[in-house]
Write a structure and sequence with these properties.
Length: 121
């Protein structure tokens, strides 16, 4: 997804999600977090392909599984911004800056702040 090879990312993440239950020794918390992070990647990939509806569905599933993941809000904010929904983008950038499990990298935090300033907070 980070390389913008969205179709390949979706294929890889589908395989990862499909293999969660076969990971030996994985507990329910790990499985939920893994699925949440994979669904976040799928969502960002769908957004990159221009399929906002499918992206929002995957973002929602990711948030349901791991609501404190800053990355999912950041990625959803990017999707909203790229589709012209400034209000939703602002809300999600703000959430991305407050969530901590895991928190955004310093680069993503700076990008979120820049976007918020550009969008007029």
């Amino acid at each position: 997804m980070e390389r913008r090879d969205f179709n390949q990312a979706i294929e890889d993440l589908d395989a990862a999600i499909g293999s969660i239950d076969s990971v030996p020794g994985a507990d329910a918390v790990w499985k939920a977090e893994f699925e949440a992070f994979a669904r976040n990647g799928r969502a960002a990939s769908y957004a990159g392909l221009g399929d906002l509806g499918r992206a929002l569905e995957e973002f929602g599933k990711s948030i349901d599984l791991c609501p404190e993941n800053a990355w999912v809000y950041y990625n959803r904010a990017e999707a909203y911004q790229n589709h012209g929904d400034w209000k939703s983008a602002v809300e999600d950038y703000k959430l991305g800056l407050t969530k901590k499990l895991p928190k955004l990298t310093s680069l993503k935090r700076a990008r979120a702040e820049t976007a918020l300033n550009a969008l007029g907070r």
